[in-house]
Amino acid sequence: MESGAGKHWTEEEVKALLSVWSEKNIRKQLHGTLRNKGIFIYIAKRLQELGVCRDWKQCRAKYKNLKYEYRTVKYAHNSGDVTKTMKFFHDLDSILRYEPVTQLAAEENGRCSATETQLNTSPTTDSTQ
């Protein structure tokens, strides 16, 4: 079977990608790294060990698509729309929940600066913590 850019990922392939992505050292390297070709080459090699033949570009594209879809569903849930779902939401939530995100914060002089905050939207989080 040909492994072109248009070939759909099977459920087993996505699960393998998520298992590699969930490793702490991989998550740490992916966070905040803009030039990440080397990381995705490593991920593709790890996937080959698991029987998944994908090149680094396909791995990066799937990573970006999954992350985008996760954030879309997460935003919808936070806005009260629980009808929007995705297949691997809970797996991605456990991987991405505590990933720091850069947000703009207004400074006293009116300028904005980037600050890192934790994405922690678990139901146990409240203002008393």
UniProtKB/TrEMBL annotation:
Stated name of the protein: ZSC20 protein
PANTHER family: HEAT SHOCK 70 KDA PROTEIN 14 (PTHR47595), MYB_SANT-LIKE DNA-BINDING DOMAIN-CONTAINING PROTEIN (PTHR47595:SF1)
One Pfam family here: Myb_DNA-bind_4
Region Disordered: start-end pairs: 107-129
Domain Myb/SANT-like DNA-binding: 7-95
Compositionally biased region (Polar residues): 112-129
Signal peptide coordinates: none
